[in-house]
Design brief:
By secondary structure, the chain is mostly helical. It is built from three helices and no strands. Helix 1 runs antiparallel to helix 2 (27-62). The longest helix is centred in the last third of the chain and has 59 residues, at 76-134. The chain is elongated, with a radius of gyration of 32 Å. It comes from Actinacidiphila bryophytorum.
Length: 135
Amino acid sequence: MDARDPELKKELSATLQARKDLGEEYESELVDSFIEKVTDRVDSRVEQRVRRELAQQQTSFARADRRPIGPPQPSARFARYGFAGFTMVLAIPLSAIGAVQAGTAGLFITWAGIVGVNLAQGLSSAWTKNRHDED
């Protein structure tokens, strides 16, 4: 919406003229009516811009710019090492609990579980990467 929109300028002039003709007792109704017209105009312009932006995004996506719309996904390296780091942090209290509850066997079982979870996550990442490479 241009600040020098001729239609809006006409509406404002008509509203001011109506205020002069009708008097101050109708001022709030006249102002409300003008504000409603301005709001409608702004809404339509925003809607046009949103439609234009969506069309541009869809067009760029369709042109093999295969980046999905949304928040960026973490890199595979970060996901892999982040998960491994997280399990190592959890390994400390889990090792203590396993050792206290079941002794050396509990410690081995705990670490077998930690290694198993990391192995499963690594294989899952590799399988997902291979599937994406095939596409």
